[in-house]
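Hi everyone, sorry if this is the wrong subforum. Our group has a chain we'd like a structural model of before ordering constructs, and none of us has done structure prediction before. Sequence below.
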Amino acid sequence: MSHVQMEIDFRRIDQENNIPFHEAKQKLAESRSIPFYVAQPVVYQPKSEYFTPFLQLMQVLQAYWENPLASLSCSKTMLLPHQVEAAMAVLQNAKSRMLIADEVGLGKTIEAGLILKELMLKNNYDRALICVPSPLVYQWQNELKEKLNEHFAVLTGKVFKKNPNFLLENPKVIVSIDLAKMPDKTELFLQQKYDIVVFDEAHRLRRDQNKITQAYHFADKICQHCLNEDGALLLLSATPFRGKLEEIYYLIRLIDPDLLGPLDEFLKQYGEDGNGNLKEVLAPVVIRRRKKDVGGFTERFAKTVKVTQTPAEANFYDLVTHYVLDEYNRALSKGNHLKSFVMLVYQKILDSSRYALLQALQRRELALKTLLKNTQDKVQEISYQYKIHKKLFTEEEWQTELEDLYENEEFIHEQEEVADPEEIKAEIKLIQNLINVGSALEKDSKLQVLKKSIRDLKKAGHEKIILFTQFTGTLRYLQQELKKQYRVVIFHGGMTAQEKEKAVETFFQDAEIFIATEAGGEGRNLQIASALINYDLPWSPLKLEQRIGRIHRYGQKRDVFIMNFATRDTVAEKVIDVLDKKIKIFENAFGESDTLLGML
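Answer:
Right subforum, don't worry. Here is the predicted structure as tokens:
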């Protein structure tokens, strides 16, 4: 005798009365406990009253509903176990509010998409907001559509102007954080309610004891006023902070305001002198996996390449460093924080390449001459000098290097400064001397070491190599020098979206060397290359990890080799020490990271 469990009692449900699905599901579950005995094995008979299309449909729906991840059946891509595991962890969290801090390349976008899809299916959520960096807006839209069959509308500045009701008409929206954080746009978002909010590259939501960025202010407002009480919040970042412990504190406050207690106690317990286990405390709201833990990824090897300067190069370096230090201190003594910050950037350019620095000095000479010409009354507003200084850099460099301190001009308008014509003339003369000394140098030791490193990598079988620098001037210089021997393509923030896509396509199809600024460090999948050279080092470990993550990710078939360049007896050597300390703080909070710097 066979024993079959069927939803026989479900025939009693009146289909015409439109019984709610949850009630139907409950009755269905009750009826499953009733055994149905037959004298012989059951053979599927479509005409049987016990196998009506409605009953079959309800069986399928129940199986679908009881699936821990119903959205798996909607996925159009091959999902990896760690991605499903992350989705399950968030869904089992009481409020589905977490920071996903998986290493770059583990597929946080897919994990977030799975969670989003599942919550929409299971909790009847229908309003979702995804905030991402500007370059990733359409990438997110395409991935959600192609891999998870989810359709999101993209909100741009032009759309805002054309349709003020866009947010009301579109329940599922992707927007760049740079647009959303604008005060007038923030007010429009605050009129909405959302079931799910996602912040990609959440390390951009920066706040510490002294400053709240507009991005953090926007996120805080959204979490407090727009996210439904039972709504989900996902923060995505492989590198959730730049090195300040309080940045972790404020990021976690978006998820759970009470978890870490008062800030002063938090810093005391988990700072350098504290003995608290921050990783353990964060465990309920943080998911962090390394490629080593997940498995299926190739190895990563990193090494620091030390460059020795010639005496003439070292002399030029010292002259520039003294100029930077003197002008920095003079600016600080007068309260001109903008100029002091510009001087710090010049020091970074010096560590990048002599060519880029000479270009920067030439631009500064021109800017100072313009300032001198317009300083007849001996008074200049800082706002005017802001515009002068901003012209010294590309838009990408300004964004990455200066906006950390000057996110908007309101701060700059707080001060005025007397511009002394004699001081300006003296600085112009000093700059002209530096340009003459630097231009007379014939050898570039760092470039020679780079060329040798590329030859060595080529001999080792690395057909394609990625080369990162922070500055467009260095990028142009390297392009000019390397294209004499190799097929080179460049990628930087000043390019249009179409130009960037074309550059990536060219690298995949033909080019041997891909030279990129930080614009190539976020969101791009470049695992066709297995070697990466950091020609200069960012002062933040998150940017370093973002760079490396472009090639050390799922789909990489070879072991990855990283070379970090640093010139001996320069600030670049000290940067390595600073990075090492910041990495240790990060590891105390989130666990060990894969190698970034390598042996010194």
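For your construct planning: The CA atoms of residues 241 and 248 lie 6 Å apart. The first strand starts at residue 2 and ends at 5.
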